[in-house]
Amino acid sequence: MPAALVLGLLLALGACHPAYDWREIQETEAGYRILLPARPVSMSRPIDLDGVAVTMSMTGARVDEALFTVGSVALPLASEPAREHATQAMRTAMERNVQGHETKATQIEVPLIDAAGRVAGSVTGTHVEVEGRVAGEPSHMSATFVARGDRAWQAVMIAPASDPQAARLFHESFRIAQ
Fold first, then answer.
1. Average per-residue pLDDT for the chain
2. Is the pTM of this model over 0.85?
């Protein structure tokens, strides 16, 4: 199925929530494309990935109480152990941020796209669902963690309750540039 048709179908499905205004975001330097449900904001800040100092670039959007973000870090080494360490540290930190516990973890394939946006392969990542608390209130986190070469990414949706339709559109639109 052509990527444009799939994207069109996903947009139609996501249009059911009146507050969502889905738009494709292309972060060339960070190496990804994704759909966000509102006008995004971006920032960068230094973080510690379990002993590895890096700068995380983040782009995100909020709709009501739902937050959608993508974080990207350049790793000091382009090795499999460095990629595994980074994605596990990101996963642990995000679970800690929502004071949560995983209810589901699944291995997934994140599309790898060429300069024209055509799917040219995939990269194995992990998708998790987490129940937790933010500011003392119940929260649900849906997150994808993946790494390739010298870069690692996290695509995270946090909301007061699970929103499977929005989460599916958000996560399935996440693509990594070659």
1. 91
2. yes
